[in-house]
Amino acid sequence: MQKYSRTAIILHWVIALALAFQVSLGWSLDALGSRGFALFQLHKSIGISILVLTLARVFVRLTKPRPAPAGGGWGGALAKIVHVGLYGFMILAPLTGWALVSTAKVKIPTLIFGTIPLPHLPLPIAANDVADRGHGLLALIGMALLALHVAGALRHHLLLRDGLIWRMVPGRSVAVMLALIALVPLGFAAGKLVARAGPASAANPAPKENAQEAPVKAAADNALVVTAASSDADNASVVENAIATVPAAAPPTWTVQPGGKLGFTVGNSGYSINGGFSRWTADIMMDPDRPETADIRVEVDLASASVGDPTQDAMLPGDEFFGVAAHPRAVFTAKGATATRANSYTAKGKLTLKGVTAPQSIKFTLKGTGLKRQVSGNASIARKTFDVGNGDSSGGLDSSVALDFSFAATGKQP
C-alpha cells in the first residue's frame, strides 16, 4: 500500500498532538480568568505553531506524491469534506485568534513561547466581536471534524479492514501505530494537566518573606561619639558647657553596595504577581543614633521593571502601568526618620511616580555596626493614587502594592 511521505507523516501526528493539547487547554481558559495569563500566552503560541505546521502540511501535500483517495460513494465524499474542513479549521482558528488579540481593547503583546514577537494584525476594533464569535464557532466545528476524522479512521481499520491507517504509520508496527494513536488522548490529558497546574503554581509561588516583615537594607551607621571626662570635679561644669557648644557631627554618607534588591508584590484575582526593578540608586545620609538627621533620595528606573514573564514585562512600560515614555523615573525623598524600636525606623516622605507626587512612608531595619550595615525594609503603595494599572487588564489587581527592599551599605564620615 502506498504511504504518505515521511515528512507528511511527521507533520500529521505532530499537528494531531498539538490540536488535542490546544483544544483541551482552550476549553479551560475561560474558567481561569486573570489567573490564566501565562496559559493564554501558551495557547496563542501553540495556535500560531499549528498555523505554521498546517501551511507546511499543505505545501507538502501539493508538492509530494500522496496515496490515491480511499474509496468512493458517500464515504469518500464525506472523507474529502472532513479533510478540507480540517485544513480550513487549522488555518482559520489561529487566524481568528490572532485577529481577536489584535483588536482587543487591551493591547497585550504576544511573544511566541516568550521569545518571538508576533505583531498585531492591522484590523479595526470593530472586528473584535466577529473574531471572537468566529473563533468560538470554529472551536466547536473543529471538535466535530476531529471526531469524524477519528471515527472514519477507526471504521476503515476495524470494520472495513482495508489497512488505510498504515498509510500514516512508519512501517507496519502495531506498537508504533498504537503509540501514535495514543498521542491524541495524551494531548488532551496534557492540556488539562497544564491548565490545572499552571494557575496553582502561580497562586502558590515559592515561599517568600511577607512584605510587611521583609528585612529592609538601608545604609546607616553610628556617628562619632564624643566623650569628655575630667578628673577635676571643680571643672566638671566647664567641660559640660564646652561639650554643649560643640556642634553635632554631620551624619555619615552611605554608599549602596552591588547586589541589592528592590521588589514588589501585588495581588491579582487571588494570586500574587512578584516582580522587581533591576536599576535604581539611593543617596543616603543618616546617623542611626540620630534618625532625625536622615536625608534619603531613591531614584528608580521604571523601564527596568520585570515580573519574569516577557509578555507582561512588555506591558509594564506602557501608559496603563508606568508610562515610561513620559515619566521614566520614580523618586522617593524623605527628610528625617523616627525610631520605632531598636534598629527599626520609619521615614515619612514623598513619592513621585508617573507625574504624581503624594505622601509616602517606608519602614526599615538596620543590622550590623560601625560603617557597615545591612538594610531591609518595606512600604505599601496605593497604586491608584499614581494611576498605575488603569486599564481593562488591571481589573483584578489589588489596590495596594507591597514594596520590599534590601541592600548592604558602607558609610563614610564627612
List the helices and strands and how they pair.
Layout: H1 6-32, H2 37-63, H3 73-102, E1 110-112, E2 116-118, H4 127-160, H5 174-203, H6 236-245, E3 253-256, E4 261-268, E5 271-277, E6 280-287, E7 290-301, E8 305-306, H7 310-315, E9 329-335, E10 338-341, E11 344-353, E12 356-369, E13 372-382, E14 400-412
Antiparallel strand pairs: 1-2, 3-6, 3-14, 4-5, 4-14, 5-8, 6-7, 7-9, 9-11, 10-11, 11-12, 12-13, 13-14
Helix pairs in contact: 1-2, 1-5, 2-3, 3-4
Q: Which key terms come to mind for this protein?
A:
alpha+beta, two-stranded antiparallel sheet, 7 helices, 40% helix, 26% strand
**Helical amount:** 25-40%
Distance between the termini: 91 Å
Oligomerization state:
single chain
**Biggest sheet strand line-up:** 3-6-7-9-11-12-13-14
Instruction: Output the structural class.
Output: alpha+beta
Strand content: 25-35%
Kindly report the average pLDDT value.
83
Shape: elongated
Helix count equals 7
Instruction: State the low-pLDDT regions, or none.
Output: 199-246
Largest sheet: 8 strands, antiparallel, barrel
Tell how many strands the DSSP assignment holds: 14
N to C succession of SSEs: HHHEEHHHEEEEEEHEEEEEE
Q: What radius of gyration results from the CA coordinates?
A: 32 Å
What features would you describe in this structure?
The protein has about 425 residues and is α+β, with helices and mostly antiparallel strands. About 40% of the residues lie in helices and about 25% in strands. The protein contains seven helices and 14 strands. The protein has helices at about 5-30, 35-65, 75-100, 125-160, 175-205, 235-245, 310-315; strands at about 110, 115-120, 255, 260-270, 270-275, 280-285, 290-300, 305, 330-335, 340, 345-355, 355-370, 370-380, 400-410. The strands form two sheets. Strands 3-6-7-9-11-12-13-14 form an eight-stranded antiparallel barrel. Strand 12 and strand 13 form a beta hairpin. Helix 1 runs parallel beside helix 5 (about 175-205), helix 2 packs across helix 3 (about 75-100) and helix 3 (about 75-100) runs antiparallel to helix 4 (about 125-160). The longest helix has about 35 residues, at about 125-160. The chain is elongated and about 100 Å long. The relative contact order is 0.12. Mean pLDDT is about 85; it is low at about 200-245.
